[in-house]
Amino acid sequence: HTIIGTSISLVSPLANLLAIPVVSLVVVPLCLAAAVMTLVSQRVASMMLLLPAWCLEWLERLLIALRDLAGDLAVLSLPSLSWPATACIVLATTLLLLPAGWPLRWLVLPLMAPLLFSRQDRLESDTARLLVADVGQGLAVIIQTRHHTVVYDTGPGEGLLSRIMLHELRAAGHQRVHSVIISHDHADHVSGLDRLEQQFNVDRLWVGAERRVDRARSCRAGHSWRLDGVRFRVLFPGPENRHPSRNRNNGSCVLLIQAGEDAILLPGDIEAEAESVLVERQAGSLEADILLMPHHGSSSSSTERLIDTVDPSMALYSAGRDNRFGHPAGEVLTRYQERGIGIYGTPRSGAIRLCLGAGCSGGLVERQYRAGRPRFWR
């Protein structure tokens, strides 16, 4: 059982059929010839590069048109298959490619059956699986219960959302999203919302302060609901005010998720001022096993008072690798380390899969996708 599945490109054969001859027979030879010509004449070399540049421009237009024409059919998303199922499909493909008349070719159809019947294993009640997606400098979290899917923030842009968030949601096998919670109106948290709503039926939309969406409900402390035994509670901002300052980060929707005896706190981008108000109002409700670092680990957040009140055993951060903001800040990491809190971040771990509740057997952190597959191209 996994949130992350398998993608199969349905347009790549045609795209390669167009691109490989153009690049191999025209672009590369002319570029190499131009590189040699620079030893003789820079002007002639520049003129020689005009044709490959023109070819690449038109090739890009053709590939974009192909992608747009295919639309949602460009990529087929399937749940991940088990190793036995994968082995069966590899064997079936091998038999299919053997010469006609080869014995046992009739086994192809039964061996391909796992593709037709593959499905996501159902979680137990009182259990939640979370995926902190690796979306660069932003935040996107997918929460799954036995029969429902909830999304907290939708990442920094449609391109990233298309490649990551939509793929994970399709691979999970759900056509409907029970709730989407947008912590606050900053591009790195909300930019993927429109595309998500185009692709999935969204039953409920919750938004933090400063977000104007016609059908959305405002996140206010006191709102709570249960899905398959998993409790979702909004702890901030309070109903009596929008947020404690003009800083939109401090209007973030703070969500506590409890499954069995495990809990995770998702605080959006709140900073020190809002953290102080949150602790004063909700001190008895903030304890959690996992804390998603506020504001990607910014130096303006993760105050000692908040960390001590939440008292997590593990802290996560979602940030872009070598991002220009310096997230997470060194002093923030030190605060967590001094308390013996385990730290995981998407720049090093990639997507982080968590499991909360009675149905988990592999600990709170089930998988770190980049750390688990350390390939040089990652």
Overview of this structure, please?
There is one protein chain. The chain has 378 residues and is α/β, with parallel strands linked by helices. The strands form three sheets. It has an eight-stranded mixed β-sheet. It has 13 helices and 17 strands. Helix content is 37%, strand content 22%. The protein has helices spanning 12-37, 42-48, 50-70, 83-97, 108-117, 158-171, 187-190, 193-199, 272-282, 304-310, 330-338, 346-349, 369-372, and strands spanning 6-9, 75-78, 127-132, 140-144, 149-154, 176-182, 201-207, 217-218, 224-227, 230-236, 254-259, 262-266, 290-292, 314-317, 342-345, 352-357, 365-368. Helix 10 links the parallel strand 13 and strand 14.
Q: Layout of SSEs?
A:
Blueprint: E1 6-9, H1 12-37, H2 42-48, H3 50-70, E2 75-78, H4 83-97, H5 108-117, E3 127-132, E4 140-144, E5 149-154, H6 158-171, E6 176-182, H7 187-190, H8 193-199, E7 201-207, E8 217-218, E9 224-227, E10 230-236, E11 254-259, E12 262-266, H9 272-282, E13 290-292, H10 304-310, E14 314-317, H11 330-338, E15 342-345, H12 346-349, E16 352-357, E17 365-368, H13 369-372
Parallel strand pairs: 5-6, 6-7, 7-8, 12-13, 13-14, 14-15
Antiparallel strand pairs: 1-2, 3-4, 3-16, 4-5, 9-10, 10-11, 11-12, 16-17
Helix pairs in contact: 1-2, 1-3, 4-5, 6-8
